[in-house]
Amino acid sequence: MRRSYSWAGDWGLLLLRVVFGLLMAGHGAQKLFGIFGGGGLTATGEYLSSLGFHPGRVYALVCGLSELLGGLGLAVGLLTPLASAALIGVMINAMATQTAPHGLWETQGGMEYNIGITAIALAVAALGPGRLAFDRLFPWGRGGWGPAAIALGLGGIGAAITLTL
């Protein structure tokens, strides 16, 4: 059954997707290219190595590409469940390796930011990207439990693989 959003709802989803997606793509560009105040692959790789991810540069590439491509996919509403999964996986890794020991609040270095990103990515997968998206032509473009499960499941599996390697 096709969801019947109002056009205001579609524009609201577009605003959410574009702002959130481009911000996440910017984080990926920081890691990959050193722009927007980022350290690039070398500095990000060294940081990830200090957290126990070896080789750090490879993990920096995976993380940067996940944020860049996941963010761009969400922004344009293309392969939304996969874009959401990429962002969810990165955030699970961030929580597991950096922010969870500090509790909830960002002011103490906690998981607040990571939880927010995860919730937004999962909500967009569950709702669907709306009519103002490339995915409107595909079944997963309608959202629902299936796309949400794919986003959460693949994000969790990707995070688990990364954390165990």
Domains counted in the coordinates: how many?
A: 1
- Based on DSSP secondary structure assignment, what is the total number of beta strands? 0
Shape: globular
Helix content: 55-70%
By DSSP (H or I, 4+ residues per run), the number of helices equals 6
As a percent range, the share of strand residues is: under 5%
Q: End-to-end distance, in Å?
A: 41 Å
Largest sheet: none
**Backbone structural class:** mainly alpha
**N-to-C SSE string, H for helix and E for strand:** HHHHHH
Q: Name the average pLDDT.
A: 95
Low-confidence stretches: none
Radius of gyration: 16 Å
Polypeptide structure, described:
The chain has helices at 7-33, 40-50, 56-76, 80-99, 112-127, 145-164. It is an all-alpha fold. The protein has one domain (7-164). The radius of gyration is 16 Å and the shape is globular. The mean pLDDT is 95.
What are the salient characteristics of this protein?
about 160 residues, mainly alpha, 6 helices, globular, DoxX, DoxX-like_oxidoreductase, transmembrane helix
Write the layout of secondary structure elements.
Blueprint: H1 7-33, H2 40-50, H3 56-76, H4 80-99, H5 112-127, H6 145-164
Pfam family, one: DoxX
Family: Belongs to the DoxX family.
Organism: Streptomyces gibsoniae
